[in-house]
Amino acid sequence: MKQYSLFLVFILFNSCQYFDKQVPSEKELLQKELKAINWKEVDEYPSMVDCDKIEDKKQRQQCFFEVLTQLIQEKLCSDTLAMLYPELDTIEVKVTVFPNATMKFEPQFPKDSVAYDKIKIDSILKVRLVDFPKINPAIKRGIPVKTQFILPVILKVE
């Protein structure tokens, strides 16, 4: 019986260490969570009313890009851009959608391009690319975020 009680006391003292688990610090948990987040992807891409009905994430993204490209082409096709630069058939436009649902458009040119008056083209884009339908910003973990993408816009269709 004495051995049994000695064994019981030994187990009792050793078992306390199993209950004394280290709680991870707040900084460690934060760093672990930040590493787990994919900062290059959003949970939901920007969307328009026309595309909100689509359930599939990739199809909704494709719909948004197609509708936005079409709207930009319609706004630029009747402009002097084609007359000023007849050789310009496609322009790449960097679109920024901000968390407050506003948009910014910037033309993208090759770095060595001097054939175009970049300031004039930029001013034409700013004047023409206004009054878009309401756009819902991209969502990351339930929070609206800023997104940027480049759309090729065809100015001449032959």
TrEMBL record:
<protein>
    <recommendedName>
        <fullName>TonB-like protein</fullName>
    </recommendedName>
</protein>
